[in-house]
Amino acid sequence: MPTHAPIVGATGLITTLQRVSSTTKSLKTTVPVAIVQQLGLGAGDRLQWQMRVVDGELSLVVSPEGES
């Protein structure tokens, strides 16, 4: 598994949410290539999503499944 050191120049990455289908409320987005490379992700890999409150602010933590 790759080392999770900070990605230089990868702050402020923005993606756009897209509707999965007209019959669901689920949305999808693209994982930026800098994150894909840093985490060593590939097609079919699974991501784990966690919401946390840090210093009174809601944060979203996304990591490869099995890491925390």
Work out the strand percent: 25-35%
Q: Which secondary-structure class do the elements indicate?
A: mainly beta
* Shape label: globular
Helix content: 10-25%
Radius of gyration: 14 Å
Order of strands side by side in the largest beta sheet? 1-2
Largest pleated sheet: 2 strands, antiparallel
Extract low-pLDDT stretches. Answer: none
Q: Give the distance, in angstroms, between the N- and C-terminal Cα atoms.
A: 13 Å
Q: Write down how many β-strands occur, each being a DSSP E stretch of 2 or more residues.
A: 4
Secondary-structure blueprint:
Elements: E1 18-19, E2 27-28, H1 33-39, E3 47-54, E4 57-64
Antiparallel strand pairs: 1-2, 3-4
Explain how this protein is built.
- By secondary structure, the protein is mainly β.
- It has one helix and four strands.
- It has one helix at residues 33-39; strands at 18-19, 27-28, 47-54, 57-64.
- Strands 1-2 form a two-stranded antiparallel sheet. It has a two-stranded antiparallel sheet with strand order 3-4.
- 0% of the residues are buried.
